[in-house]
Each structure stands twice: as C-alpha cells, then as structure tokens.
Design a protein that fits this description.
The protein is an alpha/beta fold. The chain has 13 helices and 27 strands. Helix 7 packs across helix 8 and helix 11 crosses helix 12.
Length: 559
C-alpha cells in the first residue's frame, strides 16, 4: 500500500542533489509543458505537482509553457482552461508564461544549423513510405533516397518549404542520425512538417511547424530549464532529446528525468477516449463530474488540498503501476471531514406527522456544524409537527437488528426528540407508504434519554415547513471494472450504467439555499455533497455527491 512519500526517497530529488553537488547546475528550474489540445486530467495533476513542488523544494522556479506546435488540434479554449486548472490547484507560474510558438523563429534557425552541419535533410518520402523505410524493432530501417542531398540543396528546399511553395505533406525535414539504431526514435525522425493551418497565436505566418521531439528540448534550453521532468513514456525519447540539445548547441543544457505516469482504476486517461465520451454524449461535457478531468473533479467537489495529498501519497516512482481509486476517495474524505459542515438533507423523503406535537409550534435546536472542527460553531435548526425522514429509515416489516423506525419502534431524531411509530398511511391504489404517524416524548428534548431507556437508532430529519426543495445527483465511478477495455474488450463495454442517479424531490436545510460554490457539505449519513457550479440556483438548489461516507481504503490501510 502507498504511504505518504518521504521526500528523501524521491529519486528525482536524489538526481538533483547529485547535480547540485557536482555543480552541473547551481539552481533548479523546472517547467510544466501541457499541449493545448484538450483539458487537463488527474494524470496531468501528478506531473504538475511534481514540477511545481520540486521547484519549490529547491527554492527554484517553475515555468508554464504551452507546447503549441500542432495548430490542427489546439485552441485558445484549452489554453484558458489549463491556466484556470493550474491556478485552482494553487500553483503559480508568476510572470513565467511561455509558448513554444514564442520560439518558432529560433527553432527554425536551429533547424538550419543542423542542415549546415549535415545533420538534417529534406525528405520527399510520403508518410506511408517513411513508415515503410523505418524498419521494425528487430530489423533495421533503410536510408531515404533523399538522405544524401547536399547542404545547399537542403537549405534551398527547407527555405522554400517555409515560403509555402510545396503542398502539405509533400516534404519533411528529418534529422540525420542512424537508420539502424535499435531505438526507433533515432531512425532519422521527422523534425519539421508542412502544415498549412492557421495557428491560434501566430495566425498564418507559418506553414511549417516543428515536431514535438525537436521543439521540446530546445524550448527547455531556451528557457534555461535545468531539469526536464516528464512521464515514463518519454524514456525512449531521451536519446533524441539529448541528440537535439547536443547537435543544436544551445547555451543551456537541460537534463531529462522520467517518472511513472498516473494510472487509476475505474478510469480512462486517453485524450482520445475522453473526447469520445464527450462527443458521443455518454457524459454531458468535459466538466461532467464523472470525468477524470480537473474541471470535472472541481465541479464534482474535489478540493485542491485532497488532490495534492493524493499526489503526495502515491509518490514518485520509476516503474508504472495502477493506483486504487479508493485512495483518491480516501484523500477527499479526509480533507472534507476536517472542514465540511454537517447538515441535514433528506434525499428520498417520507413524511412523518407527530400527532401529539402542538400544531403550529416551532422550536429551534442548536446543533454543531462540524465536530472535527471546534471553531466551526453551531447553528439553530427548526423543528415542527411535520417532518421528513429518509424513506430507508422506516420499514414496515423490519429484519432483526434493524434499529431505525418501524411500527411500534422508537428512534432518536438527531438533536431533537424520541419518536415512536404509531400507524402507517398507505396509498389505497398502489399500497405505497404515503406518511407515518408518530408520537414524541417531550421529556427527551435534545435527543436525551429522560429515564435512562436505550434507543439504539438515531436518524436525521427536516422540518417540512422549512424544507427547501432540491435536486441531488448521485455520482459513482464511470466504469464498472477496475481496468476498462482489458482483455480485448472495448472500453465502452465496461461503462457503469449506474454512474449517475438524479433525485429531484430532495429536502434540505434552509441554510443550503445560500450554499457556497466550491464548498463541501456532509449530508448526515448520506455522504459529502457540493453545490453544482453550473446548475445551482437559490430557487432550485442542485447538489453533486462528491463521495460517500464509506471508506474502503481506510479499512485496507489498517490491515
């Protein structure tokens, strides 16, 4: 099981310590480099946390840089959402906001530098032909027939590519490395392609764009990055990263270090799959509270503190593994338990009429807001003759050891009185229970036993005269199996048909009409909820269930 990470055991920090000790660098400068082609998800949260927290540990700097080199997939919408997510998590790039597109001219000059050194050439092979010439992991590739073009010819063609003389896809600029390398990334990779698309920042100024593996190390170098921290899938790209830096000879030489990416049970992280979920209407949008996107988690009610605690607990490893979703839920419970006010809300209401309580009388009972936070204070909750309780808190024919309300049975209304069920009123047509009639013990005021008798059941309630109508959306995991799409299945086959239940007839405390956006509340005995950031109104409050009260991870952790 994962415990909170000891900073001394972080292998990234160990590498940095050695670099500082050996004076490879005299400071630490990292960067978080998202591509603005989608919304950030919880996997990006781990990368963000590692980069920003590492810089903070060493009193260094962390840049935000958008690696925006593919105008077909990128949009300013994603740029804005990413910046919002980073700020929400509490990270600050201060005045260090950059874009790879800031460096297009410098990157072009680096490319010409490679051509002049005989380390790059213009290739006329089609995309399919490049794949065919590339070879396989066990067989070497073949040299392009255009590999031995002269420096002069390559410069001329590359400049004409920039000028827009050639059709899209007709030519590329490739690094001249080794077509027999056991690392396929080193087999003369494409470093520039013709792409006649307008860029969200540079417009139509460019019709050639650098490839990620070319611009990324050079953008790091141009920004003076010391340690380029990235996920493990880039480990095979590190030789190319180093080759680009060494051959282009920028002033600064960053070092790439890889860490294991975050894999989470009951979740898909692929941008393609997430996009399909949105575009096919399986979810309501990128911010659907079932999505692993940061905007979805924020709307669900997850807190920045819980997400950072989660990242801290899973640690920084060199080997890929999958983290149990229950740990993420445990982190949010631990955070909300300390700061979420306790409130009474009835999700599936059943009316109770207390026959011997004075008609028209209203009392107010003082209840604590959060027993885990002594500074949270108390509030007054109204009580009247007619109340609502949870439908599941009453059974006409209960099993043994059922300690809630039943005919002839007695329960404690939290903070109020003891009540005893005297009769049940049913719908004559359907047989459904419409309301139950009870009597109360005036001597049990405050929920205290007047004569020492034991009442095992305590249930929550809402005064019917004061209840606010509300909607509750009960979210669960989007997938029903830990590893969606495993064993040859399509990920759609593993969707959880019960990932969302909408209850439209809920009753909540009057104070929840003024519920604060972004604030979590514990609905007593029902779970943690927050107001929905899109649909909540004072006239019609809508609450999302963040997480239930049952903590399976805590039970596992104790074993």
């Amino acid at each position: 099981m994962n415990e909170k990470t000891n900073e001394n055991s972080n292998f990234i920090h160990d590498f940095i310590d050695i670099d500082l000790e050996e004076k490879v660098y005299d400071h630490v400068h990292t960067r978080f480099p998202p591509e603005p082609n989608g919304y950030l998800h919880i996997g990006h949260c781990k990368a963000m946390y590692i980069n920003f927290s590492t810089a903070e540990k060493y009193h260094g700097l962390c840049n935000l840089r958008f690696d925006d080199t593919n105008p077909i997939k990128e949009d300013v919408e994603y740029v804005e959402s990413i910046m919002e997510d980073i700020k929400w998590l509490g990270f600050d790039w201060e005045d260090r906001l950059y874009y790879a597109s800031d460096y297009f001219e410098e990157l072009y000059e680096f490319a010409e530098h490679l051509i002049k050194k005989g380390k790059a050439y213009v290739c006329d092979l089609s995309q399919q032909e490049v794949r065919e010439y590339r070879g396989t992991p066990t067989e070497p590739g073949k040299n392009s027939p255009y590999r031995e073009r002269t420096v002069e010819e390559n410069l001329d063609l590359f400049r004409r590519m920039r000028a827009g003389e050639f059709p899209e896809g007709s030519r590329t600029l490739r690094a001249k490395i080794d077509m027999a390398s056991p690392n396929l990334n080193m087999r003369d990779p494409v470093i520039y392609r013709i792409l006649k698309s307008s860029h969200h920042r540079t417009g139509d100024k460019w019709c050639i764009y650098p490839m990620y593996d070319f611009q990324h190390p050079l953008s790091d170098a141009l920004e003076g990055i010391t340690h380029s921290l990235c996920s493990l899938e880039y480990e095979d790209h590190r030789p190319l990263y180093n080759w680009v830096v060494n051959e282009c000879e920028p002033e600064h030489r960053p070092r790439q270090i890889e860490f294991a990416r975050l894999n989470l049970t009951y979740t898909v992280m692929s941008k393609r799959y997430l996009r399909e979920l949105v575009e096919t209407g399986i979810v309501s949008g990128w911010d659907d509270p079932r999505m692993p996107t940061l905007c979805g988690l924020r709307r669900r009610g997850y807190t920045p503190e819980a997400l950072k605690d989660f990242c801290d607990r899973i640690g920084v490893a060199k080997t890929n593994s999958t983290v149990d979703y229950a740990l993420l839920e445990h982190c949010i419970r631990e955070d909300l338990n300390k700061k979420a006010d306790r409130v009474m809300a009835v999700l599936r209401p059943l009316k109770v009429i207390i026959d011997n309580y004075p008609d028209g009388q209203i009392e107010y009972f003082e209840v604590e807001n959060n027993p885990e936070n002594p500074d949270s204070g108390t509030r007054n909750v109204p009580f009247s003759r007619e109340i609502y309780i949870e439908r599941e808190d009453f059974m006409e024919n209960p099993p043994k050891k059922y300690f809630r309300l039943y005919p002839g049975g007695e329960v404690r209304l939290k903070g109020a009185y003891f009540i005893k069920c005297e009769s049940v009123l049913k719908d004559p047509l359907t047989g459904d229970i419409k309301e139950i009639h009870c009597t109360y013990d005036p001597a049990s005021k405050g929920g205290n036993s007047p004569d020492g008798r034991k009442v095992k059941g305590t249930i929550h309630w809402i005064s019917a005269a004061h209840a606010i109508d509300a909607e509750a959306r009960l979210y669960d995991k989007l997938f029903s199996v830990p590893n969606p799409g495993e064993d040859g299945r399509e990920y759609e086959d593993d969707l959880n048909p019960n990932s969302l239940e909408v209850l439209t007839d809920c009753k909540v405390e009057p104070r929840l009409r003024e519920a604060s956006m972004g604030k979590g509340y514990q609905f007593l005995r029902m779970g943690y909820f927050c107001p929905d950031s899109k649909d909540f109104t004072k006239e019609r409050p809508v609450f999302n269930r963040i997480v239930g009260l049952k903590d399976s991870w805590a039970k596992v952790a104790k074993k």
